[in-house]
Amino acid sequence: MTSAERNHTTFMFTDIEDSTRLWEEHDRAMEAVMSRHDEIFHGAVRECGGKVFKHTGDGLAAAFTDVQQAACAALQAQKRLAASDWGTVGELRSRIGIHSGLAQQRSGEVFGRDVNRCARIMDAAHGGQVLLSGTTVALLEATRGDRWDIRELGMHQLKDLSTPEAVFQLCDPALPSRFPPLRSVDRIRRQLPPLAELFVGRQMEVRRLGGMLREGRLITLTGPGGVGKTQLAIAAAMDHMRLFQDGAWFCRLGSAQTVEDIAQLIEATMELHASRGENSLERLSSGLATRRALLILDGAEHVLEAAASVATELLGACGNVVILCTSREVLRARGEQVLGVGPLALPALDEDDLQAARRSAAVALFERRARLAHSEFALGEGNLSAILSICHQVDGLPLAVELAAAQMAAFDPRDLAQRIGRRLELIDDRDKTLATLIDLSCSGLSEAERTLFRRLAVFAGGFSLTLAERVCTGGDVAVDDIVPGLSDLVDKSVLSIERTDEGNRYRMLGVFRHYILQRLPAGEGVDVQRQRHLEAYLEFANAAREGLSTQFEVDWVRRLNREFNNLRAAVAWALESGQVDRAMELVHCTDGYARDRFRREVESWAEQALAASRGDEPHRFAALAVRATAAARGDDIAGSMRLAEEALDCARQSTVADTFIANRVVAIAGILTGDRERASEVSYAAIERARERGAALEVARFTAFVAHGFLLASDNEDAGDMARQALEQARALRNPSLLAWCLYVCGLLEEDESALGLLEESIEFADMVDNQYVAGLALQASMWKLQSAGDSTLVAACLRVIRHWYRVANWAAMAIALRLCAQCMAGIDDDLVAVLDGWLRRQEQRVAFSAGLSESYDQAIARVEKSLGKAEFQMSVHRGAAMDPTQVVNYCTRALESWVARSSG
Ligand SMILES: Nc1ncnc2c1ncn2[C@@H]1O[C@H](COP(=O)(O)OP(=O)(O)OP(=O)(O)O)[C@@H](O)[C@H]1O
Ligand SMILES: [Mg+2]
Question: 168 - beta bridge partners?
Fold first, then answer.
């Protein structure tokens, strides 16, 4: 050990998970619980040689001179917490973070950068989890590394820390080791758009919102356009996301018009996939029922009534969801709390102290934005009063301040102050202030730049250079004009630029897009652009469909994620202009991407296209196939078969070359309805056609389908041959989704240990391309395979599957998982099995299970009934039958977790 290592102090921070709720629900019991909690932690710290130096509300901080002691104390405390009986409180879980570094001491207080870092690491943990920093792991390994079971969790951006941090988990066989993704800022941020780079001020409002988010359920930020409602909502969500353990989501209401639209948008944003419920709103409520989540609904002013209904419905059904809405007007929904957002703070008009002026958010924003536009810009005594005049004239409205500051490359501040003054003389309405500023921003554009700018407004979200070249050329604009044109627009601050690994991506500020679309008469000009946009995106979508079947699937998934808004706009135009087949073609191209990732929106594209269909469109088969998939997911298996056959009929008459999607839905429906013969018939037909066309991927995919069918018919020998053949082909093709699928089928087949390896590999490939569908199947299969293990590995596998389906809220798949879980847990936790059986029987699942499965299920249940005794068994069955899906999931995960805890004693 070097002397530097010896000088390190190791810190440990702890915090009880969900303590606010526990205090609320178990006020009386909590005092005793807390004193037992303190006893456990103090005991563990003391016994291992450390010292508690601070108490926080629900946890403590301790310091250790030896890193080994800290690791011991953490594990010991977790084990004791898990083993304790917490009475009515049920269970108490604490998150722990450990980090080693230098400590500073002042009058008994320990503080410093490393102490804060440790607290941040703890913040990222879930209850029951112990997280370590990279430094701590290095120290542990330098001393007695072999003694510890340490799992690497990757790099994470933690709150308030400037650089990402490598995070590790300290495991112990006696403790649960699988947890949801870390609660790091990174994970949450990805669900929120980034905060404006130049974000300033708003500390008071953010703090105030903290209280409102804690106490209220529906909060609306109101104020005029550009005042900063959206930015404030994002800032508040980032600051207070600790209140929402399941995360925070941002949903731009954009073009949504009805309740159904809004519900669908939220569903897509949260990647939920509930199957229960007649309409999107019901599905959404069932998907969200148990989440502790913050939902930001951004820009509700054009759908006040619909947004209010969605909010009321969701808040009624989902007790732990909080909605933060931004809107120019209040929703007038029940229980709504309103926070009016005012402009940024302004200094006095005659303020002459530079530093004092800079302390106001408006001036700070102006200065920073102006410097971006013009690197030599400096706020000084010479221009202070002009800048104050500008900020005052635009009332400190941040958007207006920004737009004005962006003009500093072209105008002298005094000049601009006068111009704004002249233009504003006659108006005092803020929206007009903005329009004036947008006019001003555009006034520096040449006629050619204006034309290009106007044409670019057809893109929804960002766009690449190549697509701009495709869509915006023609007339006065030549291909060669695009590159200089875009860079001029970026220089003049009306376009922003983002550098990605695939070149530059451009984005138009929302207000400009709106302004242009509103001002431009919807005449021919716009239609031409929209048509070109549609054609360009059809080409992109076709390339994507092919790309998804190659070894480069990962890249294509990323591109599709990025272009989804543009695809939506293209579909909308196709439908609006009566080009039904083109809408269907877009459905065909995006189906593969959408299905595996549960993006239901494509289903509604298909519905709209079918509603407008004349019945003879070449791509009609694809829309029908998507409808068949939707029916199967909605548990309408017979309907799904009918639709699938209709799709296949259509495909036969179609001039389109690739119609494999139709064969696929028939094969799936065949398996679901138990008509395996039909399933293999269409699969063989597909294989033959794929061979003729040289479509190697389809050959492999349908070969695995056939194998799967054999497997269900218990013809393992034929299944084995075909599955191995398919896997071999898949390995050569290197397409991740195909590999995941073939590995899954092979894994199902193997009886020995190798099955788990194959399934694990399947999950890895599926995760690589976010194929949630196959990942779920493979997770489920590994749980099944682990049944014989009968130990905590099995339980961990059950938990993993249930959490997977919970994450996407797929209740149909969840029902199957719970059924397997019941079967696996027979003899381990009979009471749980009886509860699950009660719930499952009430569901009358129509999904056909293979005969083998049902029989062994019944046998397992019979054993449980015998061992529990009739009366007790019935009681639990009744209890289960009364639960709703989310209750049963909660009950089940708790039971599994506490079994793990008990069994490790
Ligand atoms: N606190 C802030 N610091 C820096 N810039 C800000 C701040 N608040 C808003 N802005 C900038 O002002 C512009 C408008 O802000 P935002 O989109 O939040 O307004 P809004 O009130 O939501 O407007 P709308 O009603 O049009 O949706 C954005 O470009 C944003 O970057
Ligand atoms: Mg907004």
Answer: 132, 152
Tokens 């709390």 locate to: 337
Q: Rounded to an integer, what distance in angstroms lies between the CA atom of residue 362 and that of residue 395?
A: 9
Q: Which ligand is nearest to the CA of 203?
A: 1
Q: Which atom of ligand 1 is nearest to the CA of 326?
A: 22
Highest-confidence segment of 741-745, 746-750, 869-873: 741-745
Q: Is residue 775 part of a domain?
A: no
Phi-psi category of 107—alpha, beta or left, where left has phi over 0 and alpha has psi -120 to 50?
Answer: left
- Residues 6+ away with beta carbon under 8 Å from 856: 823
Strand bridging mode 109-111 / 104-106: antiparallel
Residue nearest to atom 18 of ligand 1 (CA): 228
Q: What is the DSSP letter of 341?
A: -
Whether 166 and 270 share a structural domain: no
* Number of domains within the chain: 6
Instruction: Decide which of 696 and 153 is more confident.
Output: 696
- pLDDT tier at 14, thresholds 50, 70, 90: very high
Residue where a domain terminates, one of 743, 758, 773? 758
Nearest CA owner, ligand 1 atom 12: 399
Q: What CATH number did the domain enclosing 475 receive?
A: 1.10.10.10
Residue 307 lies in a domain: yes
Query: What's the rounded mean pLDDT across residues 584-607?
Result: 91
DSSP assignment of 11-25 = EEEEEETTHHHHHHH
- Both 56 and 130 in one domain: the answer is yes
**Tokens at 546, concatenated:** 């092919």
pLDDT greater than 80 at residue 129: yes
* Residues 595 and 718 placed together within one structural domain of the fold: yes
Ligand 1 atom closest to Cα of residue 301: 25
Asked whether residue 489 carries a pLDDT value surpassing 50, the answer given is: yes
C-alpha 301 to ligand 2 mean position (Å): 10
Query: Could you tell me if 388 and 470 lie in one domain?
Result: no
CA distance 775 to 789: 21
Ligand 1 atom nearest the C-alpha of 196 is: 31
843 and 713, same domain (yes or no) = no
> What pLDDT band is residue 362 in, cutting at 50, 70 and 90?
very high
- List, for residues 766-813, the tens digit of each pLDDT value: 988 989 889 988 988 888 777 665 566 777 778 888 888 877 777 767
Average pLDDT, the chain: 85
Domain boundary among 153, 182, 211: 182
DSSP code per residue over 626-642: HHHHHHHHTT-HHHHHH
Closest CA to ligand 1's atom 13: 399
Amino acid identity of residue 886, one-letter, is T
Both tokens of 542, joined, read 């076709």
- Judge if 715 and 855 occupy the same domain: no
> What one-character DSSP code corresponds to residue 360?
S
* pLDDT average, residue stretch 616-635: 90
Please state the rounded mean pLDDT for residues 418-445.
63
Domain match, 509 and 437 both: no
User: Would residue 76 count as lying in a domain?
Assistant: yes
Assess if residue 526 is contained within a domain: no
Residue 1's pLDDT band (boundaries 50, 70, 90)?
very low
Given a contact cutoff of 8 angstroms between Cβ atoms, the answer to whether 717 and 698 are in contact is no
Give the position, in ligand 1's atom list, of the atom nearest the Cα of 200: 3
Phi, psi dihedrals of residue 65, rounded to the nearest 5°: -85, -25
Residues 370 and 506 in one domain: no
Pocket of ligand 1 (CB under 6 A): 196, 198-202, 223, 225-231, 299, 326, 328, 365, 398-399, 402
Residue ranges making up the domain that contains 326: 192-340
- Dihedral class, residue 345 (left if φ above 0, else alpha if ψ from -120 to 50, else beta): beta
User: What number is the average pLDDT over the span 676-681?
Assistant: 91
Distance 195 CA to ligand 2 centre (A): 12
Alpha helices (H) in 425-491, listed in sequence order: 430-443, 447-456, 465-472, 479-491
**Cβ atoms of residues 644 and 628 within 8 Å:** yes
Nearest CA to 391 out of 405, 382, 399, 401 is that of: 401
